[in-house]
């Protein structure tokens, strides 16, 4: 999924990369890895920490 997302971003903004307008990007998964999947598997007894749950 992440590969597809990044490839799509690169294709969509290709002209900006070629023109040097975008030279670098940094992708984070959030301070607690909110974009991980599954981020907090219930079957492992994990619960979301609460604050920032719906950011």
UniProtKB/TrEMBL annotation:
EC numbers: 3.2.1.2
Gene Ontology BP terms: polysaccharide catabolic process
UniProt key word Hydrolase: yes
InterPro entries noted in UniProt: GH, Glyco_hydro_14
Reaction catalysed by this enzyme: Hydrolysis of (1->4)-alpha-D-glucosidic linkages in polysaccharides so as to remove successive maltose units from the non-reducing ends of the chains
One example GO MF annotation: beta-amylase activity
Keywords attached to this entry: Carbohydrate metabolism, Glycosidase, Hydrolase, Polysaccharide degradation
Family: Belongs to the glycosyl hydrolase 14 family.
Protein name, entry field: Beta-amylase
Lineage of source species: Eukaryota, Viridiplantae, Streptophyta, Embryophyta, Tracheophyta
